[in-house]
Amino acid sequence: MTIPGTVRAAEPQMNLLHGRASDLGGGLIVNRLLPQRARRMVGPWCFLDLIGPVRFDAGKGVDVAPHPHIGLQTVTWLREGELLHKDSLGSWQRIEPGQLNLMTAGAGIAHSEESPPDRGDCMLGAQFWVALPASSECCEPAFEHYAELPETEVDGVRIKVIMGAYDHLVSPARCHSPLLAAELSSTTEAGTRLKLDPDFEHAITVLRGSLQVAGETLAPGTLCYLGGQRDALDIALAPDSCGIVLGGMPFAEPVKIWWNFVAHREQTIRSALDDWNAGRRFLAVPGYAGESLKAPEWPQNGRLK
Ligand code: MN
Q1: Distance 72 CA to ligand 1 centre (A)
Q2: Distance 260 CA to ligand 1 centre (A)
């Protein structure tokens, strides 16, 4: 099947990538695995932040004030802890481990993310961005929450389908291009052969413990880019391990990312910035007590990378 704006997946490879610390404010440091110089995207996945493991001091937690997005979907996935999402559509959603918060920004949305008052003090999870294809980058904004997702256990490895499809299991989450996100976990030592779509390129990251992929041991905070053209992948998990496999049809051109905006054209980002600064397009986030985030300055000399 040919999907407009996508290309044939690269040959199989194994590139181990390390993240870099990024401060989301309020003392929340995340490990940013994408984008980076050596790799901009994996299929439509254009931004990967690993959160934690972190233990918050009493009274402290996540508090990311309202900020805008366009052209992407945010995928929030927790292994430990809780978050409270509020957005300009009026959504107000608590998320717990094993659940999916999926926000489709499309033409524009604003949201905040906070630790709920009655939370535990530990957090481990991830926030990933899916770039929307050009044909749907200006779609209506939407928010979906899934308390349960399809899962199976093969050879002792638990496979939970967050987005897309694995084997006969299909996530109910709305996708705009062919993609996969699945959590792999095990309490004991276990190994299996994953079935992959050879039209996709894939990558695997580790949240906890360690994963062996084709003989290479992956530690938390690393991303292993696997290339494409694979219909199977041997993986092994150490006891109490958890990872996420991501995949999708590669985009012909990497999207442009600046601040919280994703688009296929720079002008689309510039006009979203102007609208945010002028108080247009993006509505207020009901129920958030506090100021919204200020956008950084547009690059003075030159264009977005
Ligand atoms: Mn956000």
Answers
A1: 10
A2: 7
